[in-house]
Design a protein that fits this description.
Blueprint lengths: L1 H8 L7 E2 L8 E5 L3 E6 L10 H7 L3 E7 L14 H14 L6 E5 L1 H12 L6 E5 L6 H4 L5 H16 L3 H15 L3 H11 L4 H12 L14 E6 L6 H15 L5 E6 L6 H4 L1 H15 L3
Parallel strand pairs: 3-4, 3-5, 5-6, 6-7, 7-8
Antiparallel strand pairs: 1-2, 2-4
Amino acid sequence: MNLRLAAIYFAILMGVASAPAASFSFLVKVSGKGRPVILIPGLGCGPEVWNSTISHFDSKYEFHVLTLPGFAGQPAIKGPILSRVRDEITDYIKTNHLDHPVIIGHSLGATLAFWVASRAPKLLGGVIAVDGVPWLPALMDPTIDTKVVAAQGTYMSESMARMDKKAFRAATKRSLTSMISDPKDVEWVLNTSAESDPTSVGRAMAEMYATDLRNEVKNIQCPVLLLAEGAFFNTPSAKTQALANYESQIHLVPKHVVRMSTKARHFIMLDDPVFFFDQVGTFLTAQLPN
């Protein structure tokens, strides 16, 4: 199970324009017109994971797609990564006068979305968490000890910092293969993920393991949709328990819904696009009416 925990987080065909550089550590690509939607990829991933989402909804929304520092070729930064990005996302929304955007975050990106929504509850119009939760270690083992988690995070961070480019690419491919059903999707996601800085990916993972937001999410005021993977839960009882674990992560959020795709692995938007587009489209229509 610990290997599974580690794998979960080891993880634009249209014309785009770059957002003002300002002092943000992340890169932003902006496309489309309409109400604002911020897209945050998962650990080590580039913006391409959202290509199909943008193509599907491009006539309705203005998308702001982030590439986090140290990920997919974006320059690395010194010091904490996630807390800095959290604050910078808030600053980005204010600087660009985005009117109550919805944040769609995958994996680590979803955890960041929960963090922003908890710290700036009046700023967002909604959060869609794509198989990301307030504290990943407790999702698979609700009784896990924080000291064990801290040790796991430190070990993984130190191990990844020692990887050269070849070893990092191989490890990334193994993780993506466990999280994406189609080998063709694995390959194109790998192309940019393998360009990430191993030290940054390890640090971000360790920071994630050390950040338990389960109590903090009670401050969230906007609606939350949590989309859960279900391909690994092969029996009704396993699915029921998994849904209960996801629900326990966000039960303190006043307005929330949990939906599970029975066929998708971790990259739900790639594995089950019909389910994903239906759930996301319904949510965005309700929260960002034209």
